[in-house]
Amino acid sequence: MIGKKIEDGFNKQLNAELYAAYLYFAIGAWFEEQNLEGFAAWMKAQAFEEMSHAMRFYNHILERGGKIELMTIDKPEVTWKTPLEAFGAAYEHEQKVTKMINDLVDLAREERDNAALIGLLHWFVAEQIEEEEQTLKAVQKIEMLGSDKQALYILNQEFATRPLIATAAILNPAATPDE
Ligand code: FEO
Which of 18, 80, 105, 119 ranks highest by number of CB atoms within 10 Å? Predict the structure, then answer.
């Protein structure tokens, strides 16, 4: 059975992962408006991945007899000045999520909840390294291009190749460990 403090913390993180999906959808929509469909596709793929993160918390809470408490999802920003600023917002958000995951690790240690720690949070600690890396690399690549619009357009096309994850992998991500 899941403890109340962990249940509350995981319900908050479930909300934060859904907010992340909202943020990536918002950035994706903004890129569509800029006719940078490759970056938009990448952001939408990331939004679906965030939903799979939310489902990891959802499934874990229910598997351990807990209660899902869905909360209001904050409204994200909807406009950015430049592609660099938009990817910068994604990187900044991933750093916040890493801190939240680290706080949950501390809580699980205090509560001596190994199921939470090893069964769920270890995966997220590793995942956040990847999440920060991919958004930071995008920021650095865009920075490198400076004001070269043609190069930016080509990079945008490269980003279009990121595949969307399947619905089954969103709903049951633990069965697809690379999601
Ligand atoms: Fe769910 Fe991008 O962290």
Answer: 18
